[in-house]
Amino acid sequence: MLRLDVAEGVASDFWGDEFLLGGEAMTRISPPFSSEPLDPVDADLTSMRPSPGLATRLAKLPTSDVSDSHLVDMIGAYQRLISWAQAGQVAAIAELTRRPMFLPHRDRDERDELRSAGAQVAAELRLAPSTGEDRALTARRLVEEFPATLGALREGAIDHRRAAMITDVVDRRDVATAHKVEQRVLPRAGARTLGQHRRAIERAILEVDPVTAEERHRVAEAVRRIEFWPGDEGMGHALVTMPADGMALFRSTLDAAAQAMKSVMDDGPTMDQLRVDALIELSRRALAAGRFAGGVEGIPLSSAQGRRPNIQVTVPFSTLIGIDDHPGELTGYGPIPASVARRLARNGVWRRLLTDPATGRLIDYGTTRYTPPQDLRDVIIARDQTCVFPTCSQPAHRCQIDHTIPYPDGPTSQTNTGPPCGIHHDLKTHRGWLLEQPEEGRFIWTSPVGKRYENERPQVGPIIETAPPNDNSASADPPTTEGPDPPDVPPF
């Protein structure tokens, strides 16, 4: 394909290369619809190192005009380029962490040192804050402690995930042990699947640093945790990593509860379903009692933002009374079906949230109580739902209600407060990040390097599209969709 510019006397091909009309390059252009490849393969892609030259070479190879074998070579070459680009990004991130505005505080731990730079990476790449910190930590380790692994990444022999798995050994052993592991696994890392690579690392750790079973268990026990993430169709997932004896106790309790529930049912849920029901019921009773494990001897549950632990679901009033089926919003999860929202709201405490039907944003707040307690905090939590840092999903009720403009210079009001989590509150207070709230609920962060990032304002209620007015006049012009969108008008 050629683009001609007669006035300028130049032409460009499909790839953007320009040359003078009538010049030597014109004689090398294949005629349109030629049966010959536009740019036949004349080099072995498997032997080319990742570089700008390889990128240029690949860009000029139309996939439809190469053989099956060379098409596979192209796929592999692109993967090497991805790794090469990742190595360049690693070097840039590591350098960012050493710039003056991100200089670490040596009295803090390693991850805390890199928190501000990690937040910058997360905001720029739209990553979760923890992922941004991981990227910063891995970059520093690759550049400062694992040059061989970084070199393999730059050569396209491995990808970033395999490189990070090698550097992560430092979290479990000292750097010297990690280097020994690196020497054993790196030569074949690129030829293994991720699972094989992980097993090779585990085997190498045991070979170079044999420890007793008790010591290994102690190290493993330190990473016990529960992870939660939303699923499809109003479902969620939880993954528990716990000591074996704790797992046995947990399972025995759920088994006994599920069996007891099944014994009073002629037909109904399976044992697997009843185990889940039992776990939910244990949590429900603890919340109702305000004590862990219920009963007067249970540990009192801590409050959040002045309220007892609770779950919050937002559901349109029209959906609540059955007029329509707009989805509800479960805090910490996301959209849920209308039927689930109704069930959750049935036995809850209702509070009124007035939203703009054009935008779904909160514009007013109310409660069925005569004197709404802690009214402002409730408004902010309901309005913002999560931490106001652009990529943070920490639920607002676990965050800190903070003044955007510090008090007393800024008022204690809806237009000057928001819920940053502890980590991002610290960025604003101590790490050189600036926070603005030019209008209620709209937060703009400015990083130490001057980059600006705006949070995505949450939709609290449904967006209702109003039908255009019915005009039966024969002379009426049809509605147009051209032109700019109408400006937002308050209330938002």
**Which overall shape is indicated by the principal axes computed on the Cα atoms?**
globular
Total number of helical segments? 16
Q: Outline the biggest β-sheet.
A: 3 strands, antiparallel
**Average pLDDT metric:** 79
Largest beta sheet: strand ordering: 1-2-3
The helix/strand class is alpha+beta
The low-pLDDT segments are 1-8, 23-40, 367-373, 471-492
Give the C-alpha Rg: 30 Å
Distance between the termini: 50 Å
**Total beta strands:** 17
> Which range best describes the helical content: under 10%, 10-25%, 25-40%, 40-55%, 55-70% or over 70%?
25-40%
Report the sheet-strand fraction: 5-15%
Structure characterization notes:
This protein is α+β, with helices and mostly antiparallel strands and 492 residues long. It contains 16 helices and 17 strands. The strands form 7 sheets. A 3-stranded antiparallel β-sheet has the order 1-2-3, with no helix packed on it. A hairpin with a 3-residue loop joins strand 9 and strand 10. The longest helix is centred in the N-terminal third of the chain and has 31 residues. 24% of the residues are buried. The N terminus and C terminus are likely disordered.
